[in-house]
Write a structure and sequence with these properties.
Layout (H helix, E strand, L loop, with lengths): L3 H8 L12 E6 L6 E10 L5 E11 L2 H14 L4 H4 L4 H7 L8 H21 L6 H20 L1 H13 L1
Helix pairs in contact: 1-2, 2-5, 4-5, 5-6
């Protein structure tokens, strides 16, 4: 059973859509359940030089929990520094939603991974220092992605084509 907050985020997702010319994009998926998430971030610099996520949006093809976790992570990350946003994990996502059924916890992992990937993309494009922990998470996500792409090449190509046309 989903919590009231999960249902609210599913029915009225926050920050849904694309950002034109994003500073970072994170794309992750789970071949077992079929969920795919795109997370887009815009970053601005505060007067003290700190990078802040000024805008964040998502596009998710997935179940109730996938959409709710995508929505809530945008709320958690918007206005946060890159350093603060990197501390958002599956536990914070699940707590913010008042819980998830155990079989749906993987959706919170996907949302956290999508944020990490968007931040990684931003930092690498801008030749900024990438924290060691983020490098490790990125390598793990890339390893999983490569395995999936090798096994499900036709499905992934069809999914990418569908996303381009929307």
């Amino acid at each position: 059973m989903y919590t009231k907050k999960v249902i609210e985020h599913f029915r009225n997702p926050h920050n849904q859509g694309k950002i034109k010319n994003p500073d970072g994009i994170g794309k992750v998926g789970n071949i077992v359940c079929g969920d795919v998430m795109w997370l887009y971030i815009k970053v601005r610099k505060k007067k003290n030089g700190e990078d802040i996520i000024s805008n964040i949006k998502f596009e998710t093809f997935g179940c109730t929990a996938a959409i709710a976790t995508s929505s809530v992570i945008t709320d958690l990350a918007k206005g946060k520094s890159i350093k603060e946003a990197l501390k958002i994990n599956k536990t914070k996502i699940v707590e913010s939603l008042g819980g998830l059924p155990p079989v749906k916890i993987h959706c919170s992992v996907l949302a956290a991974d999508a944020l990490d990937e968007a931040i990684y993309d931003y930092l690498s494009k801008n030749k900024k220092n990438i924290p060691e922990e983020l490098k490790k998470r990125h390598q793990k996500i890339m390893h999983e992605k490569k395995t999936i792409e090798e096994k499900y090449k036709d499905w992934i190509e069809a999914e990418e084509e569908m996303h381009k046309n929307n």
